[in-house]
């Protein structure tokens, strides 16, 4: 018996009891739908989170090691940090503090930053962040809204007046600095001119990790001098969490496919018992064991393929619904990394169907013609 007649015979057998066939395929549909949808949903959430926090992976924060009794940087520390970050990003020493800011008859609390090159860390929504801040003040959007400030407005901090040269854009994601509540001043405006932290705005995540590792190796070679914090570790933690969540969801979905496999096993076993006479006739007229085996395996495979295709179509509808009714971007939904989950779901569904049909097919193929004809 060639393969094509085996397929035709399998289709005819499946059409004999359509209700039972549909119910068996429905288990595969649900299993494939669950694996594909949960897998893609989990990956879309992970990609969306990574995109939202993607920028923070480029920053490294270096602070004096307070736990080791170090309260400030030395000139040697700063020089070593600059050498470690050379070619990998821009080093921005920051003097930090807090103060009450007054303007337009109101006041609000603000985070003060003292740096000469604020354009490496901040973006302007109004005006231009100067590459070298010699005078004036750059204010965050939260401070500007609270005091009704615009470029050219005046603010007062501890009796000193400053002209606003730029208003910062609202923060997007997590950063080593707090731009919304920030007021950036020239370092000379601070009583303590020693930086309390150093932020490295690296060219990328790999450059940030390399700079952080070299700073730890060089500056802390003899004693603990600085604490180095890579913001990329937050992204790694988020990715690890979503990876575990995705594995858990896929495991649950896989269980539904195992249940579907049991249903197919039962359907194939019942079908074999009901067709003992037919199988006996086929064997009596010379049909080989392999042909019987092939026909029944093809039946199981067709159940898997049909159920898998329907399950994939429904999962695509579900993914489209996620895009339509939520704020995820089309680029994330269409990301190529989602495709393996669809392939995995379809392949697993077909494999479960084939494995479930193997024993009933083997049992039918090994029926003795005389015993089969006796029923």
From TrEMBL:
Lineage start: Archaea, Methanobacteriati, Methanobacteriota, Stenosarchaea group, Halobacteria
Protein family (similarity comment): Belongs to the ABC-4 integral membrane protein family.
Protein name as it appears in the record: ABC transporter permease
Assigned GO CC terms: plasma membrane
Cellular compartments annotated: Cell membrane
Regions annotated as coiled coil: none
Domain spans labelled MacB-like periplasmic core: 21-217
Pfam families tied to this protein: FtsX (PF02687), MacB_PCD (PF12704)
Chain segments annotated as transmembrane: 21-42, 241-269, 302-326, 338-359
Keywords: Cell membrane, Membrane, Transmembrane, Transmembrane helix
Membrane topology note: Multi-pass membrane protein
Domain of life: Archaea
Chain ranges of the ABC3 transporter permease C-terminal domain: 251-369
